[in-house]
Write a structure and sequence with these properties.
The structure is a single chain. It contains 2 helices and 8 strands, in the order H-E-E-E-H-E-E-E-E-E. The protein is α+β, with helices and mostly antiparallel strands. Strands 1-2-3-4-5-6-7-8 form an 8-stranded antiparallel β-barrel. The longest helix has 28 residues, at 8-35. The chain starts with 7 loop residues before the first helix and ends with a strand.
Length: 148
């Protein structure tokens, strides 16, 4: 069987078409990944806080060793920062967290029960689906980071 060799003009057009189509999707992907600015890491120098109602906030605190603490309190972050520590972990819910990409997951337990958290990291915010271990009731909260 004989296949004709394309002329240089046809070869050049074929090469240009293949290269243009191949690079057309690659460049935006590289730019999106490189310059998106979204950091998918938890922060250790403060507390993530979400409003539960007019009087109560929910809190999450992460440590570099994988420990996570969860609690609720009245709306006074300065007071919370004094007792919401690993040294007082017997007073709050405690567990280990895992980050994969921008996804975050952890289970916590303590004297008041168990909860499961799964969600996403988006800069200073965490959007978490929370499920109560006993009742299986669930809710979604967005926590915002506050440096302390």
């Amino acid at each position: 069987m004989f296949f004709p060799i394309p002329t240089s003009n046809v070869r050049d057009r074929l090469f240009d078409t293949v290269m243009t189509r191949s690079l057309a999707w690659l460049i935006p992907v590289i730019l999106l990944c490189s310059f998106s600015g979204v950091k998918c890491t938890v922060k250790y120098s403060g507390i993530y806080t979400a409003s539960v109602d007019n009087e109560t906030d929910a809190h999450i605190r992460f440590y570099e060793d994988g420990t996570v603490l969860v609690s609720t309190s009245v709306k006074n972050i300065k007071d919370v920062s004094t007792w919401f520590t690993k040294e007082n972990s017997d007073r709050v819910l405690k567990g280990k967290y895992k980050v994969k990409g921008c996804s975050l997951r952890f289970d916590v337990k303590g004297d008041t029960g168990k909860q499961s958290f799964s969600g996403t990291i988006n800069g200073d915010d965490l959007t978490m689906d929370i499920t109560n271990g006993k009742s299986k009731a669930s809710t979604t909260r967005t926590y915002h980071f506050i440096a302390i």
